[in-house]
């Protein structure tokens, strides 16, 4: 660990560590649920999951949990994922290929903009 | 890398550790491994969460579900039910007065919601071993602000505005101590943190050191920069091994990060810390005795003046504050003096940590704004008196303090108010006593403590307190006279007026205070040879009611000295000559036939 010499360096550590702390607070956590039923896996959900995890990792996003679930019941639009961010309605995206997953991370998670063309459903299932 | 789904905070404060926290953690982690959950569940040991009577405590996030009294057995169940299957284990939740389940007592119970946490802001929130988490909660930003933005003069000004007073007992304005040391002549100056917390029942300093060690490192560094010191010592008692371990670790990390040691934050300001371990003498909490102890001398107080600010450690100007006082410094520097003084009342600003102990439901640590009434502290936050008993008195300030009787329950807790009542805020120990407590016995207990801890240097304290104790022993044995009571009062007043240090100057307080408010109890002991609370063994007997006793022999079987005789199905009898008044028989009688009587 290099010695801290500026406010910027201190801020950087703060921001990084904040993510870890934030996740503990209820309601503040973001969550991406990947449907991993047989249908989802057959449609390529495993690759989608890996792409999501890698992409989050790459961007250093740690306050978003990636959770696997069973089939959403939307088998015709698999692979599906649900993005649930603090204070917002959950969004379900369909036909999420690894490339589209990266787009969702970039736009929805990082910039907070819903990716309109991939939406299957808004709100609780 | 799978993202973490749950974070589990396990309270690793001293009380929870003694209640079995380590084995809970072990089982918890083993069970996680068994289900391959170890990568998605993060287990963090935190500092004391304050609700010590509920320990070991475990809080699972993101939901924030609060589990109490967890043991090795049900730890596994929590993993299997809560983590794996997402079902809350209701059996282990906190239950309210009416038996209703409380999933998140930290958001509902007055014990948690009425608190304002400044000194204890990070306890139970961060991992005490993670400097990053401390920084995430604005840690070391106050140091940066002091060094780069405001400078020493403004630090002092901020402290003056905050009206922070020393939290260790005496309640001296903190900014003045800092100012005296800053103005003192000399190139070599020292900073000391007094972590020799010795009051029976007070443990907030230990909790801060164990749960948030970096706040002490940061505050002492700010203090050193302000007064111009290069070296600091933290004087921790040897009975606090965990505090020593975590503080040592925190100091190492701070050095690694360039926040302690040479050229702090890249400036030419250098300051380093060293831990000195005290051997557990109560008198070493007195500042000059503590200084002697650090110097390697016998821990006995020096004559004041000169005060440590001018002539302290190795004769150099020395700033000495206690742990809780330091813990308030970083947030005050960041948020400003007015922010701190918005809490509390005239003359007693900010918050104070109290250690609730004794006959109160919620024992543990609470931080509340000063000026809160005793009633609110005991009944709302403390949850009242258990077992349907009546409150009798509250002892504050430990062996240097006195008691607050029932009629003053609505007194706001301030330095001045408690002084008027003949007691002190002290370090914040609050021992709650119900109707079963004998006030003479309580006074005797505290005096036994000070007699034991008197360093022996000055006569009033060394001999005077011992004479007082002898009188109290006579009284509790039914041998006291009214002249004894007069002598007790006279001795007490003289000891307070003539002792060298704070220990002797306050030692008679528990006696004088109980004499003031519970004179009738002293009189009952002396005139009627009676202990109204039936506590003093020589003045009470244990008897069996012949009409109620069915002769089940349960009492005779548990009596350790065979004082109970009687045939089966015939009323039993206790021989008062043999009986030791241990009360074992009382606990086993199912017919309410045994009771204590005081003639």
Write structural notes for this entry:
- The complex is a heterodimer of chains A (125) and B (599).
- Chain A is of the alpha+beta class and 125 residues long.
- Chain A has a single domain, classed as 3-Layer(aba) Sandwich (Glutaredoxin), CATH 3.40.30.10.
- Chain A contains four helices and five strands.
- Chain A has helices at residues 7-22, 38-42, 45-58, 98-110; strands at 30-35, 64-69, 81-84, 91-93, 119-122.
- A five-stranded mixed β-sheet of chain A has the order 2-1-3-4-5, with helices on one face.
- In chain A, helix 3 (45-58) crosses helix 4.
- Chain B has 599 residues and is of the alpha/beta class.
- Chain B folds into five domains: 6-108, Glutaredoxin (3-Layer(aba) Sandwich); 131-340, 3-Layer(aba) Sandwich (Rossmann fold), CATH 3.40.50.11540; 345-434, Ubiquitin-like (UB roll) (Roll); 439-527, de novo design (two linked rop proteins), CATH 1.20.1440; 540-597, Alpha-Beta Plaits.
- Helices cover 40% and strands 16% of the residues of chain B.
- Chain B contains 24 helices and 21 strands.
- In chain B, the strands form seven sheets. Chain B has a five-stranded mixed β-sheet. In chain B, strands 2-1-3-4 form a four-stranded mixed β-sheet, with helices on one face.
- In chain B, helix 7 (141-162) packs across helix 8, helix 18 packs antiparallel against helix 19 and helix 19 packs across helix 21 (509-517).
- In chain B, 52% of the residues are buried.
- The chains are: A alpha+beta (125), B alpha/beta (599).
- The interface between A and B is medium-sized, with 31 and 31 residues.
How many strands, what sense, and barrel or not for the largest sheet of chain A?
Answer: 5 strands, mixed
Average pLDDT taken over every residue of chain B: 92
Number of helices of chain A: 4
CATH superfamily of the largest domain in chain B, please? Answer: NADH-ubiquinone oxidoreductase 51kDa subunit
Number of domains of chain A: 1
Strand content of chain A: 15-25%
Weakly predicted, low-confidence segments of chain A: none
Strand content of chain B: 15-25%
Number of strands of chain B: 21
Number of strands of chain A: 5
Quick one: CATH class of the largest domain in chain B? Alpha Beta
Radius of gyration of chain A: 16 Å
Protein name (chain A): NADP-reducing hydrogenase, subunit B
Keywords (chain A): Iron, Iron-sulfur, Metal-binding
GO molecular function (chain A): iron-sulfur cluster binding; metal ion binding
